[in-house]
Amino acid sequence: MGKNTYSVLELPLVTEKWQRDVLDTKIECVRKVYNRMLDVKLNKYREMTKTREWRELNDIIREELQMANGSKRKSDRLKAAYERKNAILRENGFSDFDFRNESVKYSKYYQKHISSTMASLGIGEPMWRAFEKLLFGNGDVVHFKRPDEVCSLASDNKSGIRLIESDGKYEVVLSNQKARAKTLKLQVKGPNTEYDKTMLDAPIKIIRIVKRIEKGHR
Fold first, then answer.
1. For 138-164, b where at least 16 C-beta lie within 10 A, e where not — what string?
2. How many angstroms separate the Cα of 1 from the Cα of each of 7, 204, 205?
3. Residue 72 CA to its chain's centroid (Å)
4. What DSSP state is assigned to residue 148?
5. Helices (H) and strands (E) in the chain, counts
6. Helical (H) or strand (E) element with 99
7. Rounded to a whole number, what is the distance in angstroms from the first to the last CA of the chain?
């Protein structure tokens, strides 16, 4: 079977200033939670990577890869080093699953602005991707988010943020009944083409509200 393929549909929202202010507040809450959680995870990362065992495992991996000289076949020593390194990561909560769960915990104070699904997709997932590059790729550092650096909110279209259709018109609804949060409804401009309408009939995996500053506007 082939890999799953996904399409992206972008539609503008029709918003009033007070609605944009509410969205800005939610986005800023995401940034605050991201930075708070990142501070804890970076401290944990430093503790984990400065241990003698971690350094020795990295030395073994480096030596074995050099000896392999490009061969894809892994020696038993290399396999054992990778397995132990992955075990250390799991023991210290460095996995996609752990990051998603922890983001929900850290966002509880802001749950009227950030639902658990929004925290998982907007905080836990992107932070884990950044750490993946640091741990397994060519990343050098994971940065804290500065003001205006976080510019989106995301959910799974089941909770937190949903796209609703009524009489051919669409609106985006932000809500969190568990937190008794005030519901925010935003009018969608479109769809304008048959293709757009067909796209909206398909299952939605992720719905994302993105803040963009138009040229000539602040």
1. eeeebeebeeeebeebbbbbeebbbee
2. 19, 21, 20
3. 32
4. T
5. 7, 6
6. helix 96-106
7. 47
Place of tokens 């995996």: 205
Instruction: Find, among 214, 187, 139, 184, the residue nearest to 26 by Cα.
Output: 184
Cα 176 to Cα 19, 39, 173, 181, distances in angstroms: 17, 27, 10, 5
> For residue 210, what are the β-bridge partners?
152
In angstroms, how far is CA 177 from the centroid of its own chain?
22
User: What is the Cα Rg of the chain in Å?
Assistant: 21
Give CA separation, 133 vs 16, 120, 139, in Å.
39, 19, 5
pLDDT at residue 140, as a whole number = 84
What's the distance, CA 215 to chain centroid? 27
Query: Which ranges of 107-149 does DSSP label H, i.e. alpha helix?
Result: 116-119, 125-136
Percent of the chain with pLDDT over 90: 73
The helix/strand/coil state of 205 is coil
Whole-angstrom Cα distance, residue 40 to residue 35? 9
Q: What is the pLDDT of residues 138-164, one digit of tens each?
A: 778 899 999 889 999 999 999 899 999
d(CA 151, CA 34): 13
pTM over 0.70: yes
* Token output for 217: 């506007």
